[in-house]
Amino acid sequence: MPGELLRVVTAGSVDDGKSTLVGRLLHDAKAVLADQLVAAEVASERRGYVGTDLALLVDGLRAEREQGITIDVAYRYFATSRRSFILADTPGHVQYTRNTVTGASTADVAVILVDARTGVVEQTKRHLAVVSLLRVSEIVLAVNKMDLVDFSERVFDDIVTDFASAAKTLDVPHFTPIPVAALNGDNVVEASAAMPWYGGDPLLAFLESVEPAKNPDLPARFPVQMVIRPQTADYPDYRGYAGRVEAGVLTRGDKVQVLPSGRFSVVAAIDTPSGELSAADAGRSVTIRLADDVDVSRGDLIVVAGDPAPIVTRELTATLCWLAEQPLVAGARYQLRHTTRDVLAVVDAVESKLDIATVTDRPATSLSLNDIGSARIRLAEPIIVDPYRLNRSTGAFLLVETSSGATVAAGLVR
Question: Average pLDDT, stretch 178-187?
Fold first, then answer.
């Protein structure tokens, strides 16, 4: 049976070969259905290609097929004998940086592609900044199209040096460089005879063996999504709090605290459609029953008393990935969505913006589309947060336009 699930995101500039790499990975790993391969073969022949364009296995939208680019996040699910994977292939164009944020937000590993002919470019640094800010624990630098530079070790080393410089500025602790030629499959699934100077694993072998950093000791976090009160003859006094355990473990008998009210109780039962549990760990959707009749509603957070407490606050300093055409300026008002809680928010000030060229922060008073920067935000009601570096679930939020409901920013609590 395949082992632990691994979430992978691919990113890179336009025409770096992301879709071809993913298509080759799926094809050589025997993870493509026969009808999918036939469809790609027919489409390739219709376009006059020599051989099958494996990128068509990933570029599923009609607009993408017609333009030969990726404009949406394409998710693919596959498994080998060693592991199961969810792979998100994200767009390369600058205007689709928001899609990269989406794909990287849940990833364990990020594969950043670089064209061996052009090396590290501005979009490479932008993608590195995104996956760094989103705390993706493992980063792969895949230097693609090595066949077009005669499989040169010197070219590969120069690109690795440039990438390492940007990674150091962003405080990325480590990354794994792999030279590949996705078109022919060199170092994708099988080791390449054309690059004997490379002694590491091919990409698939690395993904099968990598162990992303985990923090099993995170304190329990249970945002309440819904209060359940059937009020039927079978359950006349039932009162449960449904949601998903976002971190840590909740155990029957735990003394817990409900935030922001601060009231205490004890976990009396943990219910699921399949019956009661003695404990529920992160990622499990359950209904919690408490021993006491305390006031709990949607948007509250249940934590284990005595564990390191989250922060109850009405003011945030946060990193924002700005996703809207309209620039962000001080005084702007939005809806802030955090776990299961929605509150009104006002941007007090924009403090800085990441200069992609130098990968350093510089003072700023506004953020434009695809900018990454820091801002101070004031809230109409308190929310309960952890710093994003400690907890990706309770440390992240969205800013949403109050009138249209459009998401304008992804935020990370600092």
Answer: 93
Among 108, 88, 90, smallest CA distance to 100 is for: 90
Prior bond of 310 cis (ω within 30°):
no
Tell me the helices (H) and strands (E) count for the chain, helix number first.
7, 24
The CB density around residue 127, as the number of other CB atoms within 10 Å, is 25
Which pLDDT tens digit goes with each residue over 207-253? Answer: 999 987 766 578 999 999 999 998 777 777 889 999 999 999 999 99
283 and 335 share one domain = no
Lookup result for tokens 């994003």: 388
CA of residue 46 relative to chain centroid, distance: 36
- Is 181 part of a structural domain of the chain? yes
Please give the structure tokens belonging to residue 63: 């607009």
Task: Single out the residue in 209, 243, 261 at which a domain terminates.
Answer: 209
Entry pTM:
0.83
* The pLDDT of residue 43: 66
Domain boundary among 253, 274, 304: 304
Helical spans, DSSP H, in 55-211: 62-67, 97-104, 122-133, 153-169, 203-209
Q: Which residues contact 261 (CB under 8 A, 6 or more apart)?
A: 294, 295, 300
User: Which residue has tokens 């992609």?
Assistant: 356
- Do 319 and 367 touch, CB atoms closer than 8 A? no
Same structural domain, 55 and 163: yes
Do 96 and 14 share a structural domain?
A: yes
Q: Which domain holds residue 380?
A: 311-413
- Structural domains of the chain, count: 3
CB-side neighbour CA atoms (13 Å) of 204 = 27
Do 178 and 57 have their domain in common?
A: yes
Query: By the 8 A CB rule, do 84 and 5 touch?
Result: yes
Q: What is the rounded CA–CA span in Å between residue 124 and residue 112?
A: 7
Domain of 236: which CATH number? 2.40.30.10
Across residues 32-47, what is the average pLDDT? 63
Beta-bridge partners for 346: 333, 378
